[in-house]
Give the backbone structure.
Amino acid sequence: MKNFVGETVTIAFGNEKRQSAHIVLTSNQIELASLNATETNYVNKELAKDAKQLCIVLNQYHRQVFILKNGFDKGAKRNEIYRVLGDKAAQNLGDNKEIDFVGFDDTEALYCVAEGLVLGSYAYTKHGADSKQRTPLNLLMDAHCSEDIAFSNLVILCDAVFIARDLVNTPYNFLNATDFANKAREIGKDSGFLVEVFEKERIKALKMGGLLAVNQGSVQPPTFTVMEYKPDNAHNEQPYILVGKGVTFDTGGLNIKTPWTHMREMKCDMAGAAAVLLAISAVAKAKLPIYVVALVPATDNQTDSTAVLPGDVITISNGKTVEVLNTDAEGRLILADALSYAHRYNPQLVIDLATLTGSAAMAIGAQASVCMGNASADYKSRLHAAAVRTHERLVEFPLFEDYQKNIKSDVADMANISTGAPEAGAIIAGIFLENFAGPSWMHLDIAGTAFNSSKDAYRPKNGTGIGVRLLFDFLQQEIKEHQ
Ligand code: BES
Ligand code: MN
Ligand code: ZN
């Protein structure tokens, strides 16, 4: 891995109003912060105090110096505190102000601070603006960092998270299913992975009845985007498949949403699609030796007179029939086709990401995503470990067989919502998907984590880019499982 120590790295930077900031990450010796005698005295006195305080901040005219105290137990909890600290620093970045971090040979802490700083500096100021036009942020690493930390991946990842956020924040009238597919083509070319887009005719030929039914009420055609990254040195023969829900806008269809069911936020309903696109892009850019496929079924969910009606029976591409009792439970219909399509790859593992149910958000809020699936305990524990490391946390819900009876239909193989009690909505959606998934599958419901109503440290208001860092971290660790 390339180490950027001593080099200046340019990275997309969030706020157009800010000038490029000069950030010096140093480690080991406080002398490197070039403080005067009074300042050094003050810092040494503060350092000697046995306070819980994580760092000492010196505010000078031209710069801010963050001196990180050591002695804190390493681990995920501490790393998150450093990311939040990085975000605080980002909020203080003025024009040309320099921020120095001095970190006592703790490169992991420095990495997390830098991560929080960059991620926290994001802002979506203008629709259609893309991060390439933003003022660059210069990260200048000092030559005294002793470990070889992969700062190159930091740049790749933050860039990917920014673009995922941009896509989620882009209004529907600038990002329909065709626009999304074109964006995937552009990103694929730039990052080095293959992109094939199925247009409506091909989708019909593949008999993707779920995607076609959801698209029926729209004047815009659907797309199904297949992305493949298969490097010669891949450690795995069977791919990891990422599936993302790409509902570019969800009006609810004829079961139309009411204001209190968040209709105005529903441009975010393709956050799963954005996450898998930018995750495969980051994996390709970092040239990880792993075979990954990403699948995105995309359409808007609209109310035209041609729209699918409550009670209609449709056939998914695997031949199973579904009674559409509620047109607002559309995500699972398009995912059913994508999960069915995944079988042809004989995948190692399939992970889908979807803003699938308000119920997931109601259950655990924005603090974690809900997950469930039939993957092995080993996969689950490794996915969980990645979730803890990246602080893109997961809480597992059960998929007890008994729930299947909740979606029994009189006229089709199953209904798309519960025909009985309304409880356990997130699980019912998962139970529905299980009918189309293979034997090694995880479902991540990101309805509560994809779109923030207010800023939460380095997770901005609106699109958060959730899933990108989690998937990248997980896939990077999976390489070791195929030696
Ligand atoms: N896209 C929504 C879920 C959603 C809600 C995402 C809030 C983000 C924030 C999904 O398509 C939906 O409408 N789900 C319904 C399912 C119900 C009809 C069974 C829901 O959660 O109300
Ligand atoms: Mn819906
Ligand atoms: Zn939806």
